[in-house]
């Protein structure tokens, strides 16, 4: 598909700051068949759908209803159903709705990796309500603004696992290395994304 060109292999000169595009370029070579990829209804959904998956049951998303927060809860069931490691891509808005699921993930001893796109915004809703926030610098709707959390400390709150806050691609590399070896407990990686960052796929879907 033409969209796959948007997720070419990561280049050595990847931008210093974490963006959706740079993150998913890196994911192209980080994810593998030992994982079940789970993409929430977020700006990142359609980028995640372009990641390499070699098994029919290797990718989970709620494509019909598009309920935000679904994969945070669903990762618990996926961890019980399959020996493969759940890897979740979720927005901060959806995650905040069902964050208490992490308590059960910790209790179950699942090695889930939770990537949270922390832009303090209901980004996918903002794109559909007024995409000019992303393209022309328009003000966001007040009802789409989120109160920021310290997501990396949630493993401490729930008494299990490990967390990191990532601003740059170099910090992402360190976090990925730690998460790769942290197979028997929760990893929470908060990705500090600029609020007006958006993927080409979402711009197209929003009619920009």
UniProtKB/TrEMBL annotation:
Gene3D superfamilies: 3.40.50.970. GO terms for cellular component: cytosol. GO terms for biological process: aromatic amino acid family catabolic process to alcohol via Ehrlich pathway. Keywords: Decarboxylase, Lyase, Magnesium, Metal-binding, Thiamine pyrophosphate. InterPro entries: PDC/IPDC-like (IPR012110), THDP-binding (IPR029061), TPP_enzyme_TPP-bd (IPR011766). Its cofactor is thiamine diphosphate. The keyword Phosphoprotein does not apply. Residues 48-189 form the Thiamine pyrophosphate enzyme TPP-binding domain. One of its GO terms (molecular function) is metal ion binding. It holds the Pfam family TPP_enzyme_C. Belongs to the TPP enzyme family. This is Thiamine pyrophosphate enzyme TPP-binding domain-containing protein. The lineage of its organism: Bacteria, Pseudomonadati, Gemmatimonadota, environmental samples.
